[in-house]
């Protein structure tokens, strides 16, 4: 919102593309093997590059690298979110489903740790979103019929909040009223869920082609 633009992570080209208010596209950052998910906090753009998470300060021209955290043994670092306590959470998706994890990175010290694993009941995380009202992460998973999950930030316990979902989810965003928007490759649609996941989801976009990460424009 500071520069009235969208920042788009591009997986196959390893680039961050910026789109200005007139729809003009240009490269903001280049030279990475792959770029998956991204999130913005305090004018720092954080994004995942398979086995590492980088942070660039957008207040400088060109943007300056301020964080580069490698996570050995990770499979495919993807969706991410930040909480209100200075932590970044990153989903690690394993195609076999046996080594799925969510990592936690302290944005002051850059120390990282494994926050939750498949052995605790974690599904196949593609994207995550912070729920400040309930101090938890909302996790959307890849496999067909996989649950939508919540991870308590106090004790890392996992709850299935939608037991048997549409699945093949790849992105989630939260609006200012607490509603959630989730994209699915199974139907090539984007769905709106209420803040409590109590009602039947509403299709708000259809006819897409592999919809992935989502961002909500709070402006």
Would you write up a description of this structure?
- This protein is an all-beta fold and 219 residues long.
- It is 0% helix and 47% strand.
- The chain starts with 5 loop residues before the first strand and ends in a 14-residue tail after the last strand.
- The mean pLDDT is 96.
What is the gist of this entry?
The protein is mostly beta strands. Helix content is 0%, strand content 47%.
Oligomer: single chain
Strand content: over 45%
Arithmetic mean pLDDT? 96
Q: What fraction, in percent, of the residue positions are helical?
A: under 10%
Question: How do the SSEs run, as a string of H and E?
Answer: EEEEEEEEEEEEEEEEEEE
Shape descriptor: globular
User: How does the helix and strand content classify structurally?
Assistant: mainly beta
Main beta sheet: strand number and arrangement?
Answer: 4 strands, antiparallel
> What gyration radius follows from the Cα positions, in whole Å?
16 Å
Distance between the termini: 7 Å
- In DSSP terms, counting alpha (H) and pi (I) runs of 4 or more, how many helices? 0
Low-confidence stretches: none
Tell me the strand order in the biggest sheet: 4-5-6-7
Tell me how many strands there are: 19
Write the layout of secondary structure elements.
Elements: E1 6-10, E2 15-19, E3 25-29, E4 38-41, E5 44-48, E6 52-57, E7 64-70, E8 77-82, E9 87-92, E10 101-106, E11 112-117, E12 125-131, E13 136-141, E14 148-152, E15 158-162, E16 169-174, E17 180-184, E18 189-193, E19 202-205
Antiparallel strand pairs: 1-2, 2-3, 4-5, 5-6, 6-7, 8-9, 9-10, 10-11, 12-13, 13-14, 14-15, 16-17, 17-18, 18-19
């Amino acid at each position: 919102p500071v520069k009235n633009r969208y920042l788009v992570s591009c997986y196959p080209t390893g680039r961050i593309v910026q789109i200005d208010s007139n729809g003009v596209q240009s490269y903001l950052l280049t030279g990475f093997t792959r770029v998956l998910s991204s999130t913005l906090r305090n004018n720092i753009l954080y994004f995942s590059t398979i086995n590492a998470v980088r942070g660039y300060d957008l207040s400088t021209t060109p943007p300056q690298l301020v964080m580069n955290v490698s996570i050995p043994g990770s499979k495919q670092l993807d969706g991410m979110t930040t909480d209100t306590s200075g932590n970044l959470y990153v989903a690690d998706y394993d195609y076999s489903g046996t080594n799925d994890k969510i990592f936690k990175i302290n944005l002051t010290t850059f120390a990282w740790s494994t926050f939750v694993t498949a052995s605790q009941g974690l599904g196949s995380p593609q994207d995550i979103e912070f729920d400040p009202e309930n101090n938890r992460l909302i996790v959307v998973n890849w496999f067909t019929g996989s649950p939508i999950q919540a991870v308590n930030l106090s004790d890392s316990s996992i709850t299935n909040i939608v037991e048997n979902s549409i699945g093949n989810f790849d992105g989630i965003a939260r609006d200012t009223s607490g509603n959630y928007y989730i994209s699915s490759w199974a139907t090539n649609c984007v769905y709106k869920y209420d803040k409590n996941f109590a009602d039947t989801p509403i299709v708000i976009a259809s006819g897409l082609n592999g919809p992935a990460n989502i961002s909500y424009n709070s402006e």
